[in-house]
């Protein structure tokens, strides 16, 4: 009900869609099964995470049953903001065998192609971390992936079923799937890191009025990892720009590419392994 507008993150080149056997029966009964919705051929200027998110999230938070969303982060009503909560118990639990199982459910709103993009994103975590997304059976806490109004997620485990929204209109891309799932695992945007002022300059004068909060710094736990322009959690240079001028400029070298990740970086992976104490931590 709050007409917040928002953003999201960058985009990707299309992901080659792998054919995973569908894991559960689902059908697409939607009239919206148009292939053009998720045309994988994003144009160069669109292939920026924050550009994708902004586009997909134009009307986010306007549905009656939608949570309040700031940028692409859903805000729990019992919490003033989305500060890192990982020291307060919002991590997902590790089982005795050292694996962090995160149950998921995928809504049947998605086409089989969209679903395979999502499953590929889910599966990408277990290759390099101890986090494993598994189909939910009876577990109490789980992520429920749905096509709602925009791309967004809560930060960390909320308890019970928590929505991760991947709108069929603009969110079903590999890097966005990973980005939203990283929020659900407890991570914030790279440019909100506590040490970001040593790595980027934020030009608030170019930011859309009312969107400045997207550039607030957060007292993040950086887990001893370096600031990473190539993180899938980093916004692009023109995120929330009101005048086509940059809003985020890397320092000291302003030419470094930012926000163009097409998948998790090695630092994104390292952070998961450190936050969750995975043994396979490099
Ligand atoms: Zn985000």
Automatic annotation (TrEMBL):
<protein>
    <recommendedName>
        <fullName>Metalloendopeptidase</fullName>
        <ecNumber>3.4.24.-</ecNumber>
    </recommendedName>
</protein>
<dbReference type="InterPro" id="IPR024079">
    <property type="entry name" value="MetalloPept_cat_dom_sf"/>
</dbReference>
<feature type="binding site">
    <location>
        <position position="183"/>
    </location>
    <ligand>
        <name>Zn(2+)</name>
    </ligand>
</feature>
<dbReference type="GO" id="GO:0006508">
    <property type="term" value="P:proteolysis"/>
</dbReference>
<dbReference type="InterPro" id="IPR034039">
    <property type="entry name" value="ZnMP_hatching_enz"/>
</dbReference>
<dbReference type="InterPro" id="IPR001506">
    <property type="entry name" value="Peptidase_M12A"/>
</dbReference>
<keyword id="KW-0862">Zinc</keyword>
<dbReference type="GO" id="GO:0004222">
    <property type="term" value="F:metalloendopeptidase activity"/>
</dbReference>
<feature type="domain" description="Peptidase M12A">
    <location>
        <begin position="81"/>
        <end position="279"/>
    </location>
</feature>
<keyword id="KW-0378">Hydrolase</keyword>
<feature type="binding site">
    <location>
        <position position="189"/>
    </location>
    <ligand>
        <name>Zn(2+)</name>
    </ligand>
</feature>
<keyword id="KW-0482">Metalloprotease</keyword>
<keyword id="KW-0479">Metal-binding</keyword>
<feature type="signal peptide">
    <location>
        <begin position="1"/>
        <end position="19"/>
    </location>
</feature>
<dbReference type="InterPro" id="IPR006026">
    <property type="entry name" value="Peptidase_Metallo"/>
</dbReference>
<feature type="binding site">
    <location>
        <position position="179"/>
    </location>
    <ligand>
        <name>Zn(2+)</name>
    </ligand>
</feature>
<keyword id="KW-0732">Signal</keyword>
<keyword id="KW-0645">Protease</keyword>
<dbReference type="GO" id="GO:0008270">
    <property type="term" value="F:zinc ion binding"/>
</dbReference>
<keyword id="KW-1015">Disulfide bond</keyword>
<feature type="active site">
    <location>
        <position position="180"/>
    </location>
</feature>
<dbReference type="Pfam" id="PF01400">
    <property type="entry name" value="Astacin"/>
</dbReference>
């Amino acid at each position: 009900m709050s007409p917040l507008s928002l953003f999201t993150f960058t985009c990707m080149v299309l992901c080659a869609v792998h054919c995973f056997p569908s894991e559960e029966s689902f059908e697409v009964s939607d009239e919206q099964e148009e292939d053009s919705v998720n045309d994988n051929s994003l144009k160069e200027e669109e292939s920026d995470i924050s550009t994708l998110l902004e586009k997909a999230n134009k009307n986010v938070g306007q549905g009656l049953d939608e949570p309040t969303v700031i940028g692409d982060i859903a805000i729990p009503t019992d919490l003033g903001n989305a500060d890192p909560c990982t020291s307060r118990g919002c991590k997902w639990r590790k089982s005795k065998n050292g694996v962090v199982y995160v149950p998921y459910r995928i809504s049947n709103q998605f086409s089989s192609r969209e679903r395979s993009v999502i499953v590929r994103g889910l599966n990408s975590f277990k290759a390099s971390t101890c986090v494993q997304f598994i189909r939910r059976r009876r577990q109490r806490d789980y992520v429920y992936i749905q096509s709602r109004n925009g791309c967004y997620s809560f930060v960390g485990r909320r308890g019970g079923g928590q929505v991760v929204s991947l709108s069929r209109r603009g969110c079903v891309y590999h890097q966005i799937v990973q980005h939203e799932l990283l929020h659900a695992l407890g991570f914030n945007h790279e440019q909100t890191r506590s040490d970001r002022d040593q790595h980027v300059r934020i030009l608030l004068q170019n930011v859309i009025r009312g969107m400045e909060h997207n550039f607030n710094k957060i007292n993040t736990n950086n887990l001893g990892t370096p600031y990473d322009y190539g993180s899938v959690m980093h916004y692009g240079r023109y995120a929330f720009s009101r005048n086509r001028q940059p809003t985020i400029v890397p320092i000291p070298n302003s030419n470094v590419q930012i926000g163009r990740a097409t998948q998790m970086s090695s630092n994104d992976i390292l952070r998961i392994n450190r936050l969750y104490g995975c043994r396979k931590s490099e």
